[in-house]
Amino acid sequence: MLRSLLARTVVGLVLSFQGQARAGQETPAPESSEPPLPEFVLPTVEVIGKEVPEAPVDSARRRDPTGAITVINARERAGEARDTAELLGGSASLVVQDSGGYGQSKSLVVRGASSNGVLVFLDGIPLNGAGGVADLSLIPVALLERMEILRGAAGARYGAGGLGGAVNLVTRAPSSRLLSSGEVTYGSFDTVMAHVAASGALLEGQALVLLHGGRSQGDFSYRVDELPALDDNPLTQEVRTRNDARGGGALLKYRHGLDGGGRVDVLAELSLEDRALAGTVQNPTVSRRQDQTRLSLGARWARPFGDTGEGSARGFFRRDWLDVAGGSTGVDSGAQRYTVGGVEVEGRAVLGRNALAVTLAGSSESVTQAVGGQAASWWRASVMAMDELSLFSERLKLVPSVRVERVGHYSLLSPKLGASVDLGHGFGVRANAGQSHRAPSFLELYIRQGLLLPNPELKPERALSVDAAALWRDDIWNVTAGGFAAVYENLIAYELYPPNLAKPYNFAAARVWGAEVELEARPRAWLTVTSSYAWTRTQNRYGDPRYFGKELPYRPRHKWVGRLRVGPDWLNGRTEVLVQSSQLINRVGEARLSLPSRTWVSVGASSTFLHRPDLTVSFDVKNLLDARTADYTGMPLPGRAAYVTLSVALDPSPSEDSHVASPP
């Protein structure tokens, strides 16, 4: 009934919006005294050393001026990516943990930190659920404008949970002009994806409506050695099952300008998904399925105060409905409901050489689980202060920040110190050192899940991180090279709890160090080259001699991604190569128990062959060499796949501000 009501609401809003948009075309609206809001396209990497316009107060660069930040333009790669994880996987020190094809769970490992130690936000709304892990499969690329990635200690600016970093997924912005678009993709494994969007003036503001959906059978074939102990054993052909998924949703956004340069943004996002759960190679399932619904609501007010101050306030609410059914009743978690809501107020003022920012935040979280009538809830509250001190004609910047946070009954302190130096001629350096925490999740603390017991005595995990990098940027090149190191303490891991149960304890510790290189070159308007490389070493510091000094599982030592795009809009080609070294699948460190190295080559071409409306057709082949590998549970991942995409964009009222502005 809830889905039916939400669907009728969305349809009603779309019809109402279309009617007002037509009315706006028939009767010219009075001219606004406010300038039109530009649409920004950001470069892949943000660095210092070049004069750039002032960024919004909630952007990644303003939140952490010296941080290791990468910004990915999702709209620039529209039509060629199947999901959000595919775009994020091309960034340095980001490794995607994939459990299948389209619609199956996908999470991030950043700089060696576990997936539950990486914060993920949708327009500032936290997406990390009751288990502490954000599932990227629930965020289609169609929703996004850009992705802002902060690598390293994120606790001071983003709060508890950011041991390895934070990712903010920024959704598409509404337009003051009447715009409409649609896209449909069909490809391998009976995969179909589509979305439609409309944007325009509404109630003296701008509105955006986007509807999306997709499904995939995921029934690809693969070869397996059923008797690996025997030499020259013939491979048998199998078909991957329990890999189907389907889902859909809607995004509604509204933006209204206020007197004095202020602005109000309102967001509503709905996601529905149903997928099969395959289990593991050792314990496959035959009927287990997951049904998940997410409703996110957010509102943000922001305005400048004079020439040197600005303030903002944000409120958000998110509700997840998660139902798991089928399989063994001994491990079924049943229906789970997770609710989070909160407010955040931030002020910033420039006082001479100092730019001071203060943030006050509070939120409430709760989770209920049908099995045993289990429930848990707590409050979060925090205060953050940051100073951006500029010296020597703003060539040197010192950015100390600190967050004091109360999460349930845990008190957390997350300081950070950043510095950047502009050396002139596009060169610069930056460095950061900080501490972050992750409070145990509700599931680890209070909720029993089948054979997994909770432990209310757990302590927060802690990370001490440092990084430094050299930067160079001009009109063509954008290069960053640096290194990082981190120590993770009190890590939570499950151990056997007699007779046949498992329970989490704070006994694990690890250290991580490595190097990163990111490069972007745009020598011509029709030519773009990007590349990233990460070398990462991990070491288990737990005292058990079976694990001490061994590398952590699922952390490949090497990862390189290169991407080339050539050609104008009317006909362009692209290729992307991802090379990732082998990775262990257990803490013992046995080479025979590892996922092999992989080289994925993808190619594609697009052509905008008609204008007014713009019609674009794209063809992509993923994993061209048909490299075969498995996910972290041992289940096979898809091989070669091909997709065709048709996109339509209509702008019946072009204006002078229809061009894309320079990046902030």
UniProtKB/TrEMBL annotation:
<feature type="domain" description="TonB-dependent receptor plug">
    <location>
        <begin position="63"/>
        <end position="166"/>
    </location>
</feature>
<protein>
    <submittedName>
        <fullName>TonB-dependent receptor</fullName>
    </submittedName>
</protein>
<dbReference type="InterPro" id="IPR039426">
    <property type="entry name" value="TonB-dep_rcpt-like"/>
</dbReference>
<keyword id="KW-0798">TonB box</keyword>
<dbReference type="InterPro" id="IPR036942">
    <property type="entry name" value="Beta-barrel_TonB_sf"/>
</dbReference>
<dbReference type="GO" id="GO:0009279">
    <property type="term" value="C:cell outer membrane"/>
</dbReference>
<dbReference type="InterPro" id="IPR000531">
    <property type="entry name" value="Beta-barrel_TonB"/>
</dbReference>
<dbReference type="InterPro" id="IPR012910">
    <property type="entry name" value="Plug_dom"/>
</dbReference>
<keyword id="KW-0998">Cell outer membrane</keyword>
<dbReference type="Pfam" id="PF07715">
    <property type="entry name" value="Plug"/>
</dbReference>
<keyword id="KW-0675">Receptor</keyword>
<dbReference type="GO" id="GO:0015344">
    <property type="term" value="F:siderophore uptake transmembrane transporter activity"/>
</dbReference>
<keyword id="KW-0812">Transmembrane</keyword>
<feature type="domain" description="TonB-dependent receptor-like beta-barrel">
    <location>
        <begin position="287"/>
        <end position="624"/>
    </location>
</feature>
<keyword id="KW-0732">Signal</keyword>
<dbReference type="Pfam" id="PF00593">
    <property type="entry name" value="TonB_dep_Rec_b-barrel"/>
</dbReference>
<comment type="similarity">
    <text>Belongs to the TonB-dependent receptor family.</text>
</comment>
<dbReference type="InterPro" id="IPR037066">
    <property type="entry name" value="Plug_dom_sf"/>
</dbReference>
<keyword id="KW-0472">Membrane</keyword>
<dbReference type="GO" id="GO:0044718">
    <property type="term" value="P:siderophore transmembrane transport"/>
</dbReference>
<feature type="signal peptide">
    <location>
        <begin position="1"/>
        <end position="23"/>
    </location>
</feature>
<keyword id="KW-1134">Transmembrane beta strand</keyword>
<keyword id="KW-0813">Transport</keyword>
